[in-house]
Design goal:
Length: about 350
């Protein structure tokens, strides 16, 4: 009898173990949402807590808010636990009011009530929305509490991280060849919103990724030189839609990503220089794109790495020669990362997916 009971218990334990082993490991999921050359990236922790970075454009009957809602539903997210606004340009914060009509937003995170002239109108539209939830103003060195993740503020308001992240701070050899570009004004009273972008470094176990907003080329130098305070990342979410005013080698090559995703529009971002800098990374680094880039031309990656190919059409009633607008079906690029540092990237348009093993 004892032997029979022992056998029953043993079989039951094996069955339970088998069931547990059959369950997929929890992942840290990222949805890079197509908002036509704006920004909206949804991060979902393994516990289901959500962090949305930016809300895309206003208008178009809530086009971008609807696209965010579709990604949230795919992720099983019923509210935005944290909304981080990188800066107050319409392509980053403009969709906030329309999104708040579709999903509860519990916690608003931004750099505060200072804005440059090029941010004034979008800030004025965002400020009343921000009053609908808890609000935090953050600065470099702060952390954002998201269950299951490490979320570190590395830039905000024109200031950069001063103390390196734990275990980092080695010299950056790519600073030697850095060349400043543009006519960016560096005084806080006069610089534009891009250079004040809120930038985040996110970790899940051994997996690391970064989202920069529109932080500018010259500000990247302040962050990354002469020493690299961040170390390496597994995934680089390409700065500033892939525009040639961001994404210097001093940043990108020092980070040594194993894959990159560019949230560009058909005619916004996707600059040839960006393709070239990513192509210059050691090894064969895949660059995934939210759109086929018209300015990128022959530098575009194979179509299986591009979520959206349709440039759209001029809006009804638009003036002759008006730029096309993509208002139809949109697709996203999704990342599912595991605590050992491995991850999968998939294209919702084609269902093409690629596995990236953990860094050796």
């Amino acid at each position: 009898m004892r032997e029979l009971l022992a056998l029953i218990v043993s079989v039951a334990c094996l069955g339970a173990l088998s069931d547990a082993q059959g369950q997929p490991a929890r992942t840290f999921d990222t949805y890079v949402i197509d908002v036509e050359g704006g920004e909206a990236t949804l991060f979902v922790s393994p516990t289901g807590e959500s962090l949305l970075v930016d809300t895309g454009w206003p208008g178009f009957d809530g086009r971008d808010a609807d696209r965010i809602l579709a990604a949230a539903r795919d992720a099983g997210v019923k509210q935005i636990d944290h909304l981080a606004i990188t800066h107050y340009h319409a392509d980053h914060v403009g969709g906030a009011a329309q999104l708040a009509e579709r999903l509860p937003i519990r916690h608003f995170i931004d750099r505060g009530a200072t804005f440059s002239e090029d941010e004034r109108s979008a800030y004025d539209a965002y400020a009343p929305v921000r009053g609908g939830g808890r609000r935090s103003e953050v600065k470099p060195g702060d952390s954002i509490a998201v269950n299951g993740l490490g979320v570190h503020v590395i830039a905000a308001g024109g200031s950069m991280l001063k103390a390196p992240l734990q275990g980092q701070g080695g010299s950056n050899p790519f600073c030697a060849d850095f060349k400043p570009q543009g006519t960016e004004i560096t005084s806080r009273a006069g610089d534009g919103g891009d250079s004040r972008s809120l930038s985040l470094f996110l970790t899940y176990g051994r997996f690391r990724t970064i989202i920069m907003g529109d932080l500018t080329w010259n500000k990247e130098f302040e962050l990354m030189c002469p020493r690299n305070p961040l170390g390496e990342v597994d995934l680089y979410l390409v700065s500033h839609h892939g525009s040639d005013t961001s994404g210097s080698a001093a940043l990108v090559h020092a980070l040594r990503p194993r894959a990159a995703i560019m949230n560009n529009g058909p005619r916004k971002g996707g600059a040839i220089q960006t393709f070239q800098i990513v192509s210059g990374l050691p090894g064969s680094v895949d660059l995934w794109q939210n759109h086929y880039s018209v300015p990128g031309g022959q530098h575009n990656r194979p179509e299986m790495f591009i979520a959206n190919l349709d440039e759209g059409a001029p809006l009804p009633g638009a003036k002759p020669g008006a730029a096309p607008v993509h208002t139809g079906t949109a697709h996203w690029i999704k990342v599912s990362a595991r605590a050992d540092g491995s991850f999968t990237i998939s294209n919702s348009r084609t269902a093409f997916a690629k596995e990236y093993p953990r860094r050796q």
